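Two proteins were folded this term; both appear here.
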Amino acid sequence: MAEAALAETAAALEALRLDSQPRDLVPVLPALRPVVPGLRPGSIVSLNGQGAGSLAMALVAGVSRHGGESEAGGWCAVVGMPEFGVVAAAGMGAEPERLLLVDDPGERWPDAVAALIEAVDLVLLRPPERPGTAAVRRLTALARKHGCVLTVAEHDWPGTALRLHLADTEWTGLGSGHGRLQGRRARLIAERRGAPESTWIWLPAPDGTVTPYEPAATPYEPATPYEPTGRPTLEVVA
């Protein structure tokens, strides 16, 4: 028991030592930076609600394009998301050759994630089940030790440092029962310990990229007076 307690204390001290060392932020796409200047190495990021899949692709695009040494491109792993859109992520700026895809990690998914955490800059994970306490502690400690950003989709994860979701989304391109979806305007909300921050973005823009969006003020227009149309008014003749 004493040896186990000593080992646990040593691991905690090592984690504190690593946390005290300055590390560069893991980069994100420029459109996200007003509320997410970068991702803290070793931190936990949560993606939930509408647009979680698109946000996941945007984070992967930012890291694989701008991350790594000298910002030459970082490595990302996507675990448990077989529907992850590689083509759409590439349209946002991702480098497909820097993506590792594990569609079905199976029952031993914590072991697969643990191995990837040691090798990549960001792991995007959708656990197949509610994560247990042991898995959460193990993977959180490994992410902190190796400086990997662990991004968890659709599940709560204790110790999450940043929560991202979309609100007030609106797709463009559809007319009155016809047309094609072209782009989506949305408000990106970043929640930390303080007050939430938000910024408007295209996710995606009509060309498939992620860009800032500035809502234009709609000028006030008075209502048009009613003017009857169609058949003429009948007159009563005495």
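Next, the second protein.
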Amino acid sequence: MSLKEMVVLWQAGVENAEAGRFEEAVDNFTEIPEPSARIFFNIASAFLRQGNLEDAERNLDLCVKRDPHMALGYFQRGCLCLQKQRFVDALKDFELALTHLRGNLLIDYKQLGLQYKLYSCEVLYNKAYAELQLGRRQQCDELLENGRETASGVSESRHRIITSAIESLKTGKTFLPYRLPKSCMWFLPPRNKTDVIKPVKFLKPAKVSPSSQTGTIETVTRLGRKTDTAQLLL
């Protein structure tokens, strides 16, 4: 299969998924030979939107197997384990997500085609929820406080849920786990590859810059900002 054909399938899969045609999206994504971690993540997201947790988990397994450093893959699988009430497994995945965040406040997946920033405080929040479900209130409280402190270093309105959870527990109430927004579940094809499916007229021979072959995942630390370079492969 040519690069153009693979990019067309990827783009079609995303368009079908965004339109709610999840079965068609799965068909598109699964036609791509030797799919990347991002494709497996998209397939898993499509199955999740259909309520098919078993196939979603199977594809998240393939996702993190293909890219063992993908923090978002572990986080999403942890969230799935929460849905299946496998709280010990969820804790393991959230710990792996934190490990691959490598002490950073966040990882920005924008350059890899997903408009989402995964924050360490979100992982800590869900880890606290899993601990609560296992009856370990003290560990839950400590994780929520840690999450609140971590969230103070960034500015996202959605992180108010951490303070709300702390207040709820003080009044004897519980709280719900955090999930990825439905609008942030699809990795898009890299721009430098979608160009192959668009007619382009050059006044002179095109030159491919080495920098166009890679994308940068942005991470933010407590001390400042740094970047890690990752290959944008199909």
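Confidence is low (pLDDT under 50) at residues 199-216, 221-233. The beta strands are 106-108, 117-119, 214-220, 225-231. These notes refer to the second protein only.
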